[in-house]
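Q: Convert this sequence to structure tokens.
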Amino acid sequence: MTKKLSFLQLSTAAKALEFSLLVSRTNAELARRLDRRLGALHGLSFVDFTVLNELARDPGGKLRRVELAEKLGLTQSAVTRILVPLEKIGLVSRHPDPNDARVGYAALTKTGRTLWEEATETAEEACGDLLSGIADDEFVAAMTAFQRIVR
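A:
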């Protein structure tokens, strides 16, 4: 009979794996719920929202596509596939670099910024509902750990 070890009895590597798997499941659940809420109210997927969010948070409201891919942890081709429909509906515009034809920028349009602002309120509410039982000190500990990982 195999005895199940408690988390604290696991090796450091096994704890790291369990933590990573839990982060992945948590991310999937957050994305699923945000997809549903953002889609129903704003016609956006959570991925679309993350693109608009990165553009909106940039001081100039635009990023090179390669920078956007890096910030989102996606390939440049994946970012292009996400941007095309956002461009078609007028949320994002494409701008070439006048000094380098190989470089393209994605910029948030006025319509895109308005939708991002509305969607941000929805996303904050959805995340607040989902995470309502977590104490502030737990948030701080989790945020600290996650920030160390993504740096």
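The mean pLDDT is 92.
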